[in-house]
């Protein structure tokens, strides 16, 4: 005999002690169409976030590479004055420190 009850709470002690067979079904309050729509929206949001993150990383990496090349060129160029080399060295050190920190954070976090 199958009896259906809509209950908000289930006393598991009563279920075990009564030695009856129970079938428990948990149903979503969303309709299948609503669930499909919500999942589609979440997937679109996640795709957009990945594209945005990729774009930001690409722009940042391109800028980082360009700055590094300019700094190395200024340091190695025989036409560069000592004053130019003096202000480029801290910039290059900051770039190296930033990349190292990012790489170590990513490695530690397991990303």
Short recap of the structure:
The chain has three helices and no strands.
SS class? mainly alpha
Number of helices: 3
* Total number of domains: 1
Instruction: Give the number of DSSP strands.
Output: 0
Q: Report on the biggest sheet.
A: none
N/C terminus separation: 53 Å
Question: Into which percent range does the helicity of residues fall?
Answer: over 70%
| Rounded average pLDDT | 84
Radius of gyration: 30 Å
Q: How large a portion of the residues is in β-strands, by DSSP E?
A: under 5%
Q: Can you describe what's shown?
A:
There is one protein chain. The chain is mainly alpha-helical. It has one domain (30-109). 72% of the residues lie in helices and 0% in strands. It has helices at residues 12-18, 32-76, 82-109. It is elongated, with a radius of gyration of 30 Å. The two termini are 53 Å apart.
Keywords:
elongated; 3 helices; single chain; 111 residues; mainly alpha
Question: What topology emerges from the helices and strands here?
Answer:
Layout: H1 12-18, H2 32-76, H3 82-109
